[in-house]
Amino acid sequence: MTDNRIWLVTGAGGMLGQDVLARLAEAGEQTVALDRAALDLTDAAAVRGTIETHRPAVVVNCAAWTAVDDAESREEEALRINGDGPAHLAAACAATGAVLLHISTDYVFAGDATTPYAEDAPTAPRSAYGRTKLAGERAVLGIERGYVVRTAWLYGTGGPNFVRTMIKLEGLKDTLDVVDDQRGQPTWSADLAGLLYELGRGALAGTAPAGVYHGTSSGETTWYGLTREIFRLLGTDPDRVRPTTSEAFVRPAPRPAYSVLGHDRFAAAGLTPLRDWRAALTEAFPEIHRVQTKEDPA
């Protein structure tokens, strides 16, 4: 525990927010959970008033505009949430001395690397979503106790995601064509929640320097490789999954071809990077499958 110091979680109704709250509850921490209805991050006065009222020791910002394709035609709206919102939180946290843990994304990179992106690698977003998230990063990194945690390919039980979609499609299609030319690190939201908790504790103890960290699983695969593993865990034939290219699924926002992130900076904070993606998926899968089947039995 952190001596009854409060952890405030924004975006508390989302998949990651739910897992962060569960991890904090497990640790016996005092929490304030705020979903979008409870706090409009685009309202600077509301954000300032909320932080001043609750005086949290740590703010975990899980709130974001995550509709990647919609951001291409609604960038100003996305920027208000992904850029202005974190800026308002950063100003309020700087005024009260709170630690701010802000969740960001691999989309801030160009996605054309061939080796894992280091935490200090040059950013070059190719989409509106990436540009708006980079704006948020810069605001958070402008304060003394600002932490940016980039993640990617996130899945879990508490919301729609790729793993849940593939579970559903396995029961509907004889074969499935899945992109095999985009590489990344499938990351369980519960694992990331645990990492955020440890990073927050390190920030409070003064052992984890402020700055950028990468919160993704170890190892790497493609969407095709991930889907084959999902089929294996379902007990069905992975060969029902067929590889294809990104050209088969053209979308408004370009997808990074390479989203693998490096984890070297955790050593400076005395933290261990997340485990291999296969081990995490194996543990997460039974509950995700149960929830997906219950919510969408078809």
TrEMBL record:
Belongs to the dTDP-4-dehydrorhamnose reductase family. Gene3D superfamilies: NAD(P)-binding Rossmann-like Domain (3.40.50.720), UDP-galactose 4-epimerase, domain 1 (3.90.25.10). Its EC number is 1.1.1.133. Coiled coil: none annotated. GO terms for biological process: dTDP-rhamnose biosynthetic process. InterPro entries: dTDP_dehydrorham_reduct, NAD(P)-bd_dom_sf, RmlD-like-bd. GO terms for cellular component: cytosol. This is dTDP-4-dehydrorhamnose reductase. It comes from Streptomyces aquilus. GO terms for molecular function: dTDP-4-dehydrorhamnose reductase activity. Residues 8-287 form the RmlD-like substrate binding domain. Catalyzes the reduction of dTDP-6-deoxy-L-lyxo-4-hexulose to yield dTDP-L-rhamnose. Pathway: Carbohydrate biosynthesis; dTDP-L-rhamnose biosynthesis. It holds the Pfam family RmlD_sub_bind.
